[in-house]
Amino acid sequence: MALGEIHFNYPAVFNFGDSNSDTGGRVASGLESISPPYGETFFGRPSGRFCDGRLIVDFLMDAMDFPFLNAYLQSVGAPSFHTGTNFAAAGCSILPANPTSVSPFSFGIQIAQFLQFKSQVLQLLDDSTKSRRYIPQEDFFCKGLYMFDIGQNDLAGAFYSKTEDQIAALIPTILLEFETGLKKLHDEGARNFWIHNTGPLGCITQNIAFFGKDPSKLDRDGCVAAHNRGARLFNLQLHALCSKLRGQFSDSNIIYVDVYSIKSDLIRNYAKYGFEYPVTTCCGYGGGQLNYDSRVPCGHTKILDGVPVTATGCNDTSEHVNWDGIHYTEAANFHVASRILKGIYSDPPFSDKMPFLLKPKY
Known about the structure:
Rossmann fold, 6-stranded mixed β-sheet, two-stranded antiparallel sheet, 9% strand, globular
């Protein structure tokens, strides 16, 4: 295979990220539990995903004829890690966690977990033949695909305490930490990198509810303009980092995926893609354009003004882009994955190398 060529015949996938690609890590850690109606669209019950069904990463695995990735921290049910594992955890950031962080599993910790995982796998391969069908083979670590979808929480969290200029000044520090992690993986033999940029933060319902009370703060799509400017600046520098690393990792393939453009196009042209509500929360409380109240999370019952109220799911999740005020519905995730797999939103593009078609499975 020539450098820069994308083939999709990877023996395993190792994923790093936040709730956009967490397939059960945070729940398995015991930091949080999730209740119905999470998971009900596809799994019939909560699956550890912050969604009504499948995530983008699930659809990408399906397209490559892989089983869904098991979370690294999942210990129940004899999970198989033969075709890779998922280190992503909801709430995590690229920058190291601090005592007020939503999640302790920052990017650096996920890299450390990978190093521990690899070390244990290689030891098991030497010591036991029974385990071989549950763990990757040694060459899977250099031939596998390393996927990343992380950084959203660094930016979103910063907006609660920093100005837009301060956040812009923080982005190089965030990306230096990301670069450090990528270099550690490269040192360990990783050669195939698939990197998602961050989506339009200003179009997340939670951010519109908190930061968009003043209509002058919103853009033409009804999204918080400052958040989207921050996301675009982050993505510009992330793209530049990927280009720089291609020069440094001359033996590697680095694919930059423009998720921002796909998601912002979906928000702007939602009706064209069969959706009815671009920012109205499916599983929320409060009604109105947003149907979101941060005091009443999806699936929870809280007492407001002495009255019990519940954030319940909507009748048809496929009409909504937003699931719970923060995360996308399965229908929206399917749309994003379908667009990713067209190949035209990637650098380098791979539209002429597609060996598969994504199959709708609602």
